[in-house]
Fold:
Amino acid sequence: MKMMRMKIAHDARPQVRTLLIATLITLALWFIPYADLLTYPFRLFVTFIHEGGHALAAVLTGSSVQSLSVAIDTSGLTETLSPQGGLFSRFFISSAGYLGTITFGALLLRLVRHQVKARVVLVGSAVVILGLTVIFGFIAPLTNLSLQPFTVLSGVAISVGLLAAAKYLGLRAANFLVGFLAVQCVLNAVFDLKNVLWMSVASSEATDAMNMAQATGIPAIVWSLLWIGIALLILSTAMRAYAVSRNGPSQPDLPFEDPLEV
Structure:
């Protein structure tokens, strides 16, 4: 019996190469002094997606969003009001930042993998950022005088930049940009969860995990590990779907592998 081996679908190889290049560039930039200036717009993009996950989860659970703000240092804050005793609501809202970000990154990968035009994905991403900016970053804060001008300016700037990229970039450049955005979402979510896990052990700093610990009495480290497990499951599922041939036979249990030969 031959040993099982990993195999990437032939039609997925160009996208996988693009994804690997985007990942390597991202990791390299982390170790180059002042390179964070180059990735600054992308980190703002990820923060909008993260905070947008909190805001969307609040709306879906019947909570109200008081404001969504993104700071110049790329940190973010979403203020919500949940119904009294709404434990599930609090869990869903707290989870939706990190898990929503990694899910958004996985969605970008899936869309491009299934031949949705990169320009369409960029326009869609611009609409998402602009919608979050206008509804939760501008309109909602007006009701309680908590408007943050930088949130509006950066949200509009990112949206305009994505629309310009969709209009003027060539096909390969647009595909690469979508892959790069996906990598930013995935890697930032994973490393943020790593930081949350560390803070759950080493400090009492306010985090989503600490908020859940205060609401339930369950230690923050448990929530951190739970979110890491779910994030890895989402990422694993996305990467398997990304590498499976659209035209080949379905292998739900062994999506990367050739059939066993006896």
Observations:
- The two ends are 5 Å apart (CA to CA).
- The chain has eight helices and two strands.
- Strands lie at 64-70, 76-81.
- Residues 10-243 form one domain.
